[in-house]
Amino acid sequence: MRNPPDETLGATDDLPSSPPASGRGPKGGRPASAKNKDGAGRKPKPSRLREGDEDAPIRKCILSGERDVRPHLVRLALAPDGQIHPDVRAKAPGRGAWIGVTRLELEAAIKKGKLKGALARAFKTGEFTIAPELPAMIESALARNALDRLGLESRSGTVLIGSDRIEQNARQGKLKALYHASDAAEDGNRKLDQAWRIGNDVEGSGLRGLALPASRTILALALGRENVVHIGLTDRAAAKRVSEALDRWLHFIGSEPSSVSCETASQGASASQNIGASGSTGQRPAVDMTEEFE
Fold it and tell me: pTM for this one?
């Protein structure tokens, strides 16, 4: 993210102290604005967009100026005590600002005073404190959010574990996402990856599961299961929810995968070569700018 900042659009928001009214979906709220103040229509980074993102609200990173859909960014909230806290689920009341940089970029921005200046402009106050451990807090919150999402999907019955069961569903073309523990054996990964490619009729492509930055012990705790080495999802909506949570975590720690962990609508080896890290086709959907505040 290298675009110059533009504090006039998308930098901050106010969240209500109670949940929004029932029935307000991604298309609800204020109408989209097609152009910013200088007349130039500016779109989110296409490499991180995917099917369904065209309806998501757009926000701007206060450090890079780059715009992206809300699920790809991290909200920083100004607490009543003046502390800056990560609000990765974007539910905390009050003022908030959005960032989409990596941990290394954030640490550099803190060291150079750029984050403090960006937040002061966003919140229109200098009455706040940035804890030195803020990057670690964000990483921990993103990891917890991603693992919690896997746990929720497991309890709802959309998660498969066990190599034999995952392989069977993969060969039948039922698998929508595939993940491996960080300490999973390579031969086991390759076996399931190959089964998934066969089931999707994309043999010879780069389609393969994603090795998560979490061991089998951590995954077992998150899912409430025993010995979770591989994870498969057969529900497309569940796969998208998990991928969104994982994408933010991996992007922040600087480990965005080069593999394809989620099935897309693309078929065939040639089509799969154009799929991005998180199942994105790399194509730019028709996304318009939303207004600055929610």
Answer: 0.73
